[in-house]
Design a protein that fits this description.
alpha/beta; L-arginine/glycine Amidinotransferase, Chain A; three-stranded mixed β-sheet; 15 helices; globular
Length: 417
């Protein structure tokens, strides 16, 4: 039986605030602050437990090897000898943002009846460009069943940042859907990370029906305001598209196409007059998990920052009270990840599949999360300051912590990946 599964990235022990992501205002604003890797990872686990308590299926993706010594060797250096900017890039915990791991097309949408996953190349920014080999290794383990086809990345220079720029709408998860790929156009203040050529290549690789596949340009205003990915200003689930008025360059054309392809689509557009782009991005209103509960309720899982932003919370409460498509709000605390530039949606990759076809090492229940939490309490650093990145003791702790987690979940083959 097909159902939606959220695969959350476990926040790695190297979580730090190096400010490596231009256009991600939270990440650059907090550059140089002291991070709390242990608290960050535990907050992520609490989010997963909350999802399980709502009746949702939950999986995990595992932290990558940090520092990435293999990447540094390819650059002719080592962690000890690398210049500070390469050291920071090699130490980044950005693989925690599982929404950037891959683009996923469920089996009802693909010509061959298989679920397709294309690993994102993340070619735009150096600190993310070296993630894809380990991401691909994990995806090939988790989705080794014949029900899936896992693709390597689209080659650079065509930048692809995965599911953060992809949306799917369908009457229900196991029905044929329509897929929307959102791309940016270069030339603004910040990089446009998703290229249209990459999105079109993925649609071809996945065997999608051109009549049910759409390509929409993200508005330059949204990118300039700090919407470095589409999922900072729009999210879709089931029949519901939830978006800011300024999310897309030509929203009226997109909405007309969607209504023609899926007449039952429900478009919830938040007016800029009610919630500014700045408030939407600072609160991560749209970087929320929009999910369907077993009861059928469409529910929005938002960070605490959304409740603490008056314009955002006022609009949300009015929408729910007015019997809008979103029927329920859940608030979670992911402050550490928010401070590094990503909210609830950034932390998860959505896969519609039969859980029985997935490697059980990548699926979790409350008991398994409790065991992982206890390991994190023992092994993850409590805090990392900028100057700590040069400390051999920290490197040993980070590498040992990841190895302990991989041993616990039975994925020792990834230790040297």
């Amino acid at each position: 039986m097909l159902r939606e599964i959220n695969f959350d990235g476990i926040i790695g022990p190297s979580h730090n605030f190096a400010g490596l992501s231009p256009g991600n205002l939270a990440a650059t604003r907090n550059q140089g602050l002291v991070s709390r890797p242990r608290a960050a990872a535990l907050q992520g686990l609490a989010k997963m437990r909350a999802n399980l308590s709502l009746g949702l299926a939950q999986g995990i993706l595992l932290p990558h090897a940090r520092p990435n010594r293999r990447w540094l060797r390819s650059l002719g250096t080592s962690y000890q000898l690398a210049p500070p900017h390469l050291r920071a890039q090699a130490f980044s915990a950005s693989a925690m943002w599982a929404a950037n791991a891959a683009t996923v097309s469920p089996s009802p949408d693909a010509a061959d009846g298989r679920c397709h996953l294309t690993t994102a190349n993340l070619a735009t920014l150096p600190h993310r460009s070296h993630e894809w080999p380990e991401t691909l290794a994990q995806l090939r383990l988790a989705f080794a069943h014949d029900a899936f086809r896992v693709h390597g990345p689209v080659p650079p220079p065509f930048g692809d940042e995965g599911a953060a720029n992809h949306m799917r709408l369908a009457a229900h998860h196991d029905a044929p859907g329509i897929e929307v790929f959102v791309f940016g156009v270069a030339g603004g203040a910040f990089p446009a990370r998703q290229h249209r050529d990459a999105s079109e290549a993925i649609a071809r690789l996945h065997g999608l029906d051109p009549a049910r596949t759409f390509f929409a340009q993200q508005s330059p205003e949204a990118i300039a305001a700090g919407a470095f990915h589409n999922d900072v200003v729009a999210v879709a689930n089931g029949r519901v598209l939830f978006a800011h008025e300024q999310a897309f360059a030509d929203p009226n054309a997109l909405y007309a196409d969607l209504r023609d392809a899926l007449p039952e689509v429900e478009i919830v557009e938040v007016p800029a007059s009610r919630v500014s782009l700045e408030d939407a991005i600072a609160s991560y209103l749209f970087n929320a998990q929009l999910v369907t509960l077993p009861t059928g309720e469409t529910t929005l899982i938002v960070p605490q920052e959304a409740r603490e932003t008056p314009s955002v919370w006022r609009w949300l409460e009015e929408h729910v009270a007015g019997n809008g498509p979103i029927r329920r709000l859940e608030v979670i605390d992911v402050r550490e990840s928010m401070s590094n530039g990503g909210g609830p949606a950034c932390l998860r990759l959505r896969v519609v599949a039969d859980p029985a076809t997935i490697d059980p090492r990548f699926m979790v229940d409350a008991e398994k999360l409790n065991a992982i939490g206890a390991l994190i309490e023992r092994h993850w650093p409590e805090a990392i300051a900028a100057e700590d990145l040069q400390a051999p003791a920290l490197i040993d702790q980070v590498e040992g912590a990841r190895a302990a987690l991989l041993e616990m979940v039975g994925c020792v083959e990834l230790i040297n990946s």
